[in-house]
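Example A, followed by Example B.
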Amino acid sequence: MKQVIILLIGISMCLTGLAQTDSTAKGNDNENDTIRVGGMIIIKKHKGNNNNDSSNVRTYHRDHKPSRISTNWCIIDLGFANYNDQTDYKSSAIQGPDGFAPGLGKDQFKLRSGKSVNVSIWAFMQKLNIVKGIVNLKYGLGIELNNYRYDDPILYQTNPTVVVLDNTRNYSKNKLAADYVTIPLMLNFNFTPHRKHGFGLSVGASAGYLYSSRQKTITNTDGKEKEHDDFDLRQWKLSYIAELALGPVKLYGSYATESMFAKGLDQRPYNFGLRLSN
């Protein structure tokens, strides 16, 4: 709505300027009329004499000058969450008497891809100009919310953490949620530094601190249940991250450097999706 209002004001200014130009006296036919609207310059050149008047209107767009520091507030990521499962399910750490998931295999940990989602809310992302707006340092602060939806009725038991297959109930929903406070740090390459919405690439790493984790289930017998525990998840998550800017459209992706579990399972999470920012 704000952009529409600004556009309407700009159009009104243009029309007002043109109307004033038409009503001026023709004492000096060679003078030009110049109107500035935001980053746009409109120049009306007058030609001719008393017998034959003509004019030429040209519109110029002023280049966007990259600032030393630029800040975006409240960026939202909407995407999908999954993991690369490299667990050795035949090992004693999984199948032994004190194993993490006895009797289970890779198939039981498969996710519902369309239902496993990642939503991140970045309080801010800031870009520090290093080389003429082409090379920048990009950093920020936000929270990552990851929901892993399971196909099979696996259940996390606590103290100690053991994963079992629960066939005694019918599950309509079964997910593991892991939420992090995250700081990203990237090297940004802006291929069109004089455009507000240009083309660029950012690569780097992020560090996330696990502040909340839980398993949420909905079954036919017990309804909705939530179990809050760390489930032996790592307290810290280090990830490789990247962002691709295609004009007004931004894509993001991340891949963890190691398993999200401190023991037992070797599942390395990754996210990808659409980044919404101004």
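Example B, a separate protein, is given below in the same form.
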Amino acid sequence: MQLVMIDKLKKYYSDKLVLDIDKFEILENEKIGLVGSNGAGKTTLIKALTRQIEIDEGQIYLTNSYSYITQSEDLDFLLEDNKIKSMLKAPDKFADYLSGGEKVKLRIANAFKEEKKLIIADEPTANLDKESINILESMLKKYNGAMLLVSHDRNFLDVLCNRIVEIDNGKLSVYNGNYTSYTHLKSKEREREKFEFEQYISEKKRLESAKIKKINSRDNIKKAPKRMGNSEARLHKMGDQRGKKNLDGNVKSIQSRIDKLEVKEKPKDIAEIKICIKDGLEIVSKNLIEVNNFTLLAQRKKLLDNVSFKIKRNKKIALLGENGCGKTTLIKEILRNNNSSIRTNPKVKIGYFDQSQEILKEDKSILDNIKVSSSFNETFIRINLNLFGFKGTDVHKKVNLLSGGEKVKVALCKIILDDNNFLVLDEPTNYLDITSLQALEEALRNTEKTMLIVSHDRAFIEKVCDYVIEIKNLKIKEFNGSYREYMESKNNKKLTLACNKKNEEILILENKQSQLISMLCLETNADKKVEYEKEYYDVLAKLKELRE
């Protein structure tokens, strides 16, 4: 049964064709991952499917029995739904006070509230911690309907999808299997395209070279010498004409073979993204921010209890913690700079990336959004936008027409071109494609700027950060080292505690063993002796198990 059917779909923005889909369908129980680079058309396709935007040509059929998990939605009315609150264990607070992860979980709960035949999800793992992603994966695995998932989370797509649909320049290509299968097939496809293109170019060059040789041979056929007699000249001319005719035939034959060659297009180069972060005003002081005896409250809920820590110069800090623990609330308190427990160095200029991209004006163009706060001229701004993949007239696009990943790139470019020396990045990797993510990683590694980064992408913070602050149980834990080293340290502590507990148990059992030996020696009652012997052998078995 068809749940989605697209036929000869075309969608234009101005004169640019952004969707060009001949045929596409989703059947019952299919689990489809929709992938593609930022700006390829994923969000446009989803908006067209869900009738948020009108198409210019073609037809779309979408079942009425579907749920949609969107990147943004009015959430306050959802908090009034008791069924959703019970599914989520949602807190009694307005949407403005929810963390990014809590907002995503609210949208997910709304999608699962009623059993539909199809779930359409646009970046459902954005802002979710690992535990929440695992819960979502489990819910979707148990879901009996069809799914269309837009996600840059490769593991998520691997676990859930049996078909990957790639969108590139508005066109769809379908690959059977999960994301890993897709990357393997895509790699083989690129190798084949490269080989076929090289073979085509080689054969075309060979034929063109042969054609030129034949033309030269024809043109070099000599005319009859003047001293030659008339009869000899006629014979020579006849031979020349036959030779030229044969060579003309050869030239035409070769040209025909060239014309009949199947043209192979050169494989498209993967778009390269380069990000360059300039160092800001140097700060001599060792500490940029000092937090002393600070307690953090939100909606009367305590998030931090009497904590102290420092943000040191040139450190790239990962701020960790579960959804709702207070990471974003802490960042906003630092940005306000009006709390006596938080002292900020007066030379600090903060560049803040908000996970909801509130620094962008939706009705303004990409270029206008950046020009308004940057001291650089338009030429330099355009050069940097080009490095982010916004070329030519793309810079005049309104922000409200951009995909989630494109908005992230504009916000990052805006922050990078602002005059700052301390970057605060709240979930900067959300919605970014792999190429953009790798470019961001490299740029952040190469700058000397101090950073405070919130991200649930563990691979990202491992590559970028050299210091860890974790919020847990209303307290702050600090660690001078990478995320991997921090986790190893935590595991070693757990192992040490486990070893200490084990040694403690062995000591208790050894004491018990000594007591039982004494009791067996002194006891005269036969029944009691049997009881003590049984207990003795039980203790012996436990000791053996612990010592192994």
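On Example B: Residues 74-80, 87-95 have pLDDT under 50 and may be disordered.
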